[in-house]
Structure formats: C-alpha cells, structure tokens
Amino acid sequence: PAPDWLDDIAEPIVLVTTSSVGQADRALVAAAMRAFEDAPVHVVASLPADGDGLLRRDRRVTLTRFVPHSPVLDRAVCVVTHGGMGVTQKALSRGIPVCAVPFGRDQFEVARRIEVARCGVRLPARRLSAQRLQAAVRSAMTMSAGAAEVAAGFAATGGMRRGADIVEAHTVSV
C-alpha cells in the first residue's frame, strides 16, 4: 500500500534509493537533498530497510527508512540509485529515466548499460556532489524516450508470467 504522506506531495517526484546491502552510499541521499532543495521536485529518499519509519518530511524532501517503490514510481519523473538491478528494472519497466551512481559490485555494469541504452546517465560515486547530481538528473530526465524504449522491450518479453512459464517448462517434476 502507498504511504499516507504520498498524496500530500504535489510536485513531480525524484525517488532516491540506497542499497539494502551495506555500502557507503548514504552520501547519495545527502547529495540529493542538497541538490534539489530549491528545485520544483520533491525528493523521496529511502535508506536501507533496517526499520520502518519516517525520518524527515518537509516541503521538498521525504526521508524514510523504507518505502514501497511501486506507488512512488507511479509518480516519479526520475530515479536516482546506486545502480542496483532491482530498482533499476522497476524504474525502466515503467519508462522512468535513471541516474545511477554506482558504489560497488555489479552496479558499475548496470550504470554502464543505462548509459549505453540512453535511458539515463551514470555519475561515478567519486565525482558525486550536489551540483553534479543535479546536472546528471536533469540530463537523465531528457532521456525519457530511451527509457520508454527499454520499457517496451521489457513488455515484449512477456514479463514475470512468461519467465515463470519458461522456468516451469524446464523444471523436472519430482
């Protein structure tokens, strides 16, 4: 279900997410809060799900420990992420451009593929600043056509139901 406070947000939403696996990506949330403090958007930022709870809510920022992505993505104009595969696919399946700031693991490759597909941009974590993040998000938001193309590609595969059918077809009955 959508959080109660979501209906109170009138501005376009920029969703900012961090990894659920420990890494030093909380700087991403801090940079986003500074980058968009005077912009005509509302930042919804979620920290690792180490407990529920709204941490901050004001005119331009909602900071929470957990938020279900789907209802927020339904209103998002861009997603800022560490480049995790889950939230990246959720955003792109809806045609929402992505700004990926990779910190480790497979995130570098996910960010590279976002850039190659022209469905968003990559900002190296070592270059992260509020000013650079704001510029990267503005650039990503011009790539909605690329994000829509990726969404169409996802839809053409048949989605989760088709994936489950393929797995079941190749699974030996016990």
UniProtKB/TrEMBL annotation:
Keywords: Transferase
Signal peptide: none
Protein origin, superkingdom: Bacteria
Gene Ontology molecular function: any one: glycosyltransferase activity
InterPro entries with a match to the protein in the record: EryCIII-like_C, Glycosyltransferase_28
Coiled coil: none
Domain Erythromycin biosynthesis protein CIII-like C-terminal positions: 58-152
Pfam short name (any one): EryCIII-like_C
Database matches in PANTHER family: STEROL 3-BETA-GLUCOSYLTRANSFERASE (PTHR48050), STEROL 3-BETA-GLUCOSYLTRANSFERASE UGT80A2 (PTHR48050:SF13)
Name used for this protein in its record: Glycosyl transferase family protein
